Amino acid sequence: MTGPLPVRPAPFPDELLSSWLQRVAHGNVVRLSYLALRAFGDSNFWQRDPDRLLPQDQALALSDLTGVKPAQVHSLTMQAYVGQLYRSLPAHAQVSWVTPLRRQGYLRRAPGLVWCPVCLKEHPYVRRHWRLSCALVCAEHGVLLEEACPHCAAPFAPLRHDLGKGRHWIHADLPFRHCSTCGGRLDGAGTPAPASLLAAQRWLDTGLASREMTWPDGRQVTTVDAFSVLHQLSLVVRRPGLAAQMDREGLPCPAGKLDRPNLTLEDHGLADRRALLARVTWLVQEWPARLLLLAGPAGLTRRPLMANFPDAPAWFDQVADQLHQGNGRRAPIRVPLVAHLSPEELAARQAGAPSELERRRWAILCAYVACPEGLTVSRRLGVPRELVTRTVKAYNERGPEAIAPPPRRVQKRRLLTLEDEEALRDFLLGRPPSNVELADWFERRVGRRPDPTTLWKYRRGATSSPLGERRPGERAKATGAQR
Questions:
Q1: Is 33 helix (H, G, I), strand (E, B) or coil?
Q2: How far is CA 151 from the centre of its chain?
Q3: For the ranges 240-244, 332-336, 394-398, which has the lowest average pLDDT?
Q4: Distance CA 440, CA 99 (A)
Q5: Which of 63, 101, 168, 360 has the fewest Cβ atoms within 10 Å of its own Cβ atom?
Q6: Do residues 335 and 372 make contact, with C-beta atoms less than 8 angstroms apart?
Q7: How confident is the model at residue 317 (pLDDT cuts 50, 70, 90)?
Q8: Cβ atoms of 77 and 70 closer than 8 Å
């Protein structure tokens, strides 16, 4: 069967791709496996994570079936948060702020998707932001999000309803409100959220709604930088010294295992994520005074703040530098960049650089403007620190002209003039001289004795045509001379 589907429901605001596809399959009374086989010809479509990243050809196929534009189909995936929560979204590797589903086909080995009971009661579909590890509270209804069935503790996996039970697999209602394991109700009134956690969630949601957000110290920062700093601090607050200081403040304490240093925020359950982000949002208040105040008693240094953080923004790097002085260490020397050009002009020079060498030099200057510290720039761009130092010094002293490499002048050094070459040709057309005799001729003519390679080149050039072949009659003369 070809052509568009009979029933083509439009996506809801902030709907997840799998939720929309389940509504499409439910409206056309087909299984999800058949829908994927018809749209993509791929029977293993649901074995992967379609909500993470959708190829362009599959988005076009869904557009042909449903009439929804491919750009809108892509907006239903986690790709919509590129540039807000993360700078790129790989196809398979774990990425910050996206919870892994830990799935085997339709089965889930651990919770990875949360839901709001009130949202499911009012409008039953899965929201896209429920796949984020920073989704803790429903800011619209002021209740805590849930990740496991309150009746059987099974993970929230609405796709499992598509399997059905026997012949009675067609549901009269959408299956989002019921547990896929025990059939219990998942919608309801919900549990009211604490005021502090609700305020923190609303602050995070303002960042998700735009490309910039207000940091607690009043400055406007890009959302991707703000969330990268928050994710880094979620690892820092787990350190024993800082965790002990926060325990004395009466902050929520995570109950899960925190002894493994390679655990990230996405590896924890919902309750532990609430506790960790509650500590992070409390720590960034009165920025950076509260962090610097706790750093001394907790033994916190610059290293854990910057560990595995190559894209740290300059304003966060400057705060981390203060921990060098607070712990008896010498702060790195910062050489300011002379304002020969504005940051916009530097970026334009980088984009229009004619060579890779010049483009790399302009990239160093652009990164140095954002973070004027040579080691950070070298790590961020993957270039030697000495190259950063030399580039900045040359730019400060000589301006933009020091960045563009001068044109290379290739000068051919001629040992003989045209008159000398004509005389050499007459000398060689007679009895072919030996190398010693030819060297003596050069010494009398130009005052120096060439090396054997130069002698061979001149002997070859004087007795050859422009095509590299011997001139007519020269081969017989050379052969007779050799005899």
A1: helix
A2: 40
A3: 332-336
A4: 83
A5: 168
A6: yes
A7: confident
A8: no
* For residues 187-202, average pLDDT: 91
H/E stretch holding 214 reads: strand 212-214
pLDDT band at 72 (very low <50, low <70, confident <90, very high): very high
Task: Provide mean pLDDT across the span 447-460.
Answer: 83
pTM for this prediction: 0.68
Give the contacts of 219 (CB within 8 A, at least 6 positions apart).
315
d(Cα 418, Cα 427) in Å, to the nearest integer?
A: 14
User: By C-alpha distance, which of 310, 463, 473 is closest to 380?
Assistant: 310
pLDDT of residue 76: 93
pLDDT digits (tens, 9 = 90+) for 26-40: 888 888 888 888 888
Dihedral pair phi/psi, residue 468, rounded to 5°? 90, 5
- What is the rounded distance in angstroms from the CA atom of residue 331 to the CA atom of residue 321? 6
Q: Please give the Cα distance from 377 to 383 (Å, whole number).
A: 8
| Contacts with 305 (C-beta within 8 Å, 6 or more apart), sequence order | 232, 236, 316, 319, 320, 323
DSSP H or E stretch at residue 241? helix 240-248
Evaluate whether 237 touches 283 at the Cβ level (below 8 Å). yes
Closest CA to 383 of 396, 405, 372, 367: 367
Q: How far apart are the first and last CA of the chain?
A: 89
Instruction: Indicate the angle between helix axes 195-208 and 223-236, nearest 10 degrees.
Output: 140
Residue pair 246/293 in contact (Cβ under 8 Å)? The answer is: no
Number of Cβ within a 10 Å radius of residue 182: 11
Say if CB 155 and CB 111 are below 8 A apart. Answer: yes
More confident position, 37 or 463: 37
Give Cα 113 distance to the centre of its chain: 24
**What is d(CA 255, CA 269) in angstroms, rounded to the nearest whole number?**
10
Token pair belonging to 307: 């560990």
Nearest to 319 by CA among 286, 344, 346: 286
pLDDT band at 472 (very low <50, low <70, confident <90, very high): very low
Q: Where are the alpha helices (DSSP H) in 408-468?
A: 418-429, 435-446, 452-462
Q: What are phi and psi of 470, to 5 degrees?
A: -70, 145
